[in-house]
Write a structure and sequence with these properties.
By secondary structure, this protein is an alpha/beta fold. 39% of the residues lie in helices and 22% in strands.
Length: 479
Amino acid sequence: MLHYSSFINGRWQTGEGEIKVVDPSNGEIFATVSKVTVNQIKEAIEGAHQAFQDWSQRLASERARLLFQAAGKARERAENIGHLLAQEQGKAFPDAKKEVLGAADCLEYYGSLAMNIVGEIPPNSASHLQSLAIRQPVGVVFAVAAWNYPVSLISWKVAPALAAGCTVIVKPSRETPLATIEFVKAINEAGLPTGVLNAISGDNALISQEIFSDPRVRLVALTGSTETGKEFIRASAQTVKRLILELGGHSPFIVFSDADLEKAIKDGVKRAFRNTGQICNSVNRLLVEEKIKDNYVKAFVEATQKLRLGGAFEEPVPDLGPMVNQAGVDRMKEFIEDARIKGGKVLCGGKQPDDPQLQKGFYFEPTVITNVSPDMKIMQEEPFGPVVAIDSFQSVEEAIKKANGVRYGLVAYLYTQDMKKAFQVAERLEWGSVAINNISPDSLYAPYPGWKESGLGVELGHQGLEEYLEWKHIKWEVM
């Protein structure tokens, strides 16, 4: 049994009570994390606030150097952190280790951008006046990441915040706290000053109450559900905090008849079921041009039925691991039953596996549903699991209308060999990212915004760094 605590103002501190961490492959508790008290939350805020006075004044070159050193520490620990991540989240160990290495790359990337924070000299409003516009760090940041990619997503927040000169309080997910805590530990061991980067675990309501009521916390960055994002928006009003919200998705995967069908099938299956469908940019709805729908569906189902379920450390590496908890399994059953009642047809999957080796874990078979209608939950809400619906369209206009017909707007996918059509459709899709003939919509070097109810603000790219900076106008009279 592993035991973890919170890292507050340079010290590991045990609180009151504990969070139990479950291995989703067998349902067994293998670790605990101590819950913070109200006083410890207050200490974390005070420590981060005091540390900001010094960290924000450090040379950009020093912040960059420490981020590069932190990236090195994370790479050194990738095996250990990846092992914890695989065990607590359920993803295959190679994928977990790759996630940690990607988080190290993120630290390094924003370390390089720390040297490029610049201001402006606006035109004079009068001959005896001069203006200077400078960028300064926002202040104390509260960073929260979801459990599906906890190390990667927390790096998207911690790296630009530290590069900008902010201090950070990280709240790991209750489902997958261990790898995040170890990642924070590795960054601190690179030589960060006391209080610059903290990690607190505990009751969500208690932590949120203290964070949102304290004016010293100036920015909250969240990757989570749309419902949680709305709660954060409401809570932020009391002290007018800045927000960066990367929320839910319901990605359409549009396949035109002139697409490379072999690639569109392979990519569609991979993006629908990667990480057991527990990804905000997972494919939830396949929209296939009517003239090729039957052939596409047949091939898609055949490919899906070949996928293998298994644990994080199995060899060969399984295609799907378990869901993170029983609530996820129950959610899949609810979505599938809703579709069946409303006329949907389950072509494969739709249940927990019969394999005796998988009975103890939170496994669920990859599921494909057809005969769908707009009133089904699977067509409107994010399932966040291994279930995908296949619909059809007869024209470009219908494809765009169906793709845009939900409240989300994170990522859309588009497959066609007609590049003129591809860009015309991409411009009209109400989605923050559009991937044409590929399933890699995010990049360290480009913005990753959420449109509509998929979020506020931007992560990644130089735009992600700018979210942690504020403008200040300094105007003086030339004597």
